[in-house]
Amino acid sequence: MAQPRLEVRNLVRRFEGRAVVDDVSLTIEPGNVTCLLGPSGCGKSTTLRMIAGVDMQDSGSIHVDGTLVCDTVFRIPPERRAIGLMFQDFALFPHLSVGENVAFGLKGAGSAKKARATELLDRVGLGHFIDEYPHQLSGGEQQRVALARALAPRPRIMLMDEPFSGLDNRLRDGIRDETLAVLKEEGASVLLVTHEPEEAMRMADEIALMRGGKIVQRGAPYNIYNAPADKAAVAFFSDIN
Ligand code: ADP
Ligand code: MG
């Protein structure tokens, strides 16, 4: 089988003696969307922060494309991990145009940066906004610009932490579908954190179900939904229909 894009092995993070991430292992295959799904407080964001490199594990290791990114003695800093980030608060730079926002993290000649920004903005359907400023856009449009910005440098992995939770309910399903289409067109490998089973069912190639700091089940959405590992998993899925 091909080498996983991301491999997390036996990750542990303790706060005040309590393991909030408790021996988490997971892999992401290239081009896949994996959803880390679980109730609030189960350790999803802490896991993501360690992969991003903004927090450090107490034990365990992380590899990207087979290369060690960090273990307990070695650590590549966040800015050298080729990881794209998108959080609920996806703040664009207000003083930069939409195009400048998308080009912000890019290196190289101005013309190449502009070409890539244009490509990404076209992909999210906002090419005509390239010279506008963030405050001129709706919340959903700003979200799409943030997605374009995160994807522009072609990150090896996209980490998304509840990226849709700040959006109006009426917009959310449409934006989820559009986002998924863009991620697939770009061939991005994604770890998306959510506490909403419906979101994971809609977007994931694979779900890793987390509870109390542990991954309790992994598999295709359909399989997990149809055969939850235990009563708690059944209850967790019961509010979707
Ligand atoms: P989730 O993203 O699944 O909602 P988190 O990873 O944010 O969960 O948090 C998991 C647990 O770790 C929670 O109980 C939270 O209060 C605790 N926690 C997170 N960060 C810290 C911290 N810096 N110091 C102490 N406890 C923390
Ligand atoms: Mg969280």
Automatic annotation (TrEMBL):
One of its GO terms (cellular component) is ATP-binding cassette (ABC) transporter complex. GO terms for biological process: quaternary ammonium group transport. Residues 6-237 form the ABC transporter domain. The keyword Iron-sulfur does not apply. One of its GO terms (molecular function) is ATP binding. Keywords: ATP-binding, Cell membrane, Ion transport, Iron, Iron transport, Membrane, Nucleotide-binding, Transport. This is Iron(III) transport system ATP-binding protein. It comes from Alloyangia pacifica. The chain holds residues 1 to 241 of 359 of the full protein.
